[in-house]
Amino acid sequence: MDDTLGTLKSLPVADGADGVYYPGERSAALAVERAANGVPVAPKVWRDLTARAAEYGITPPGTV
């Protein structure tokens, strides 16, 4: 498996691409990044969530 992935990763990158990826590689990297830094939330969604949380007396994370 390591040889196969090594061969894949050594292929030339297509014009406009930032790399050659195997299935699931980008998803796994994104999961690690989001576990470390959190999941981005659109401003309107965050406003709606914090408004709803306030209705129930909940302090959302990162707002203390």
Quick take:
By secondary structure, the chain is mainly alpha-helical.
Itemize the secondary structure elements and their pairings:
Layout: H1 2-9, H2 25-37, H3 43-55
Report on the architecture of this protein.
The structure is a single chain. The protein starts with a helix and ends in a 9-residue tail after the last helix. 0% of the residues are buried. It has 3 helices and no strands. It has helices at 2-9, 25-37, 43-55. It is mostly helical and 64 residues long.
Main traits of this protein?
53% helix; mainly alpha; 64 residues; 3 helices; elongated
Look at the structure and give the mean pLDDT: 92
- Span of the ends, CA to CA: 47 Å
Q: What's the Cα radius of gyration?
A: 20 Å
Q: What proportion strand?
A: under 5%
Number of helices: 3
Unreliable residue runs: none
Query: What gross morphology would you assign?
Result: elongated
SSE run:
HHH
- According to DSSP, the number of beta strands is 0
Supply the helix-strand structural class: mainly alpha
Q: Biggest β-sheet: count, sense, barrel?
A: none
What portion of residues is helical? 40-55%
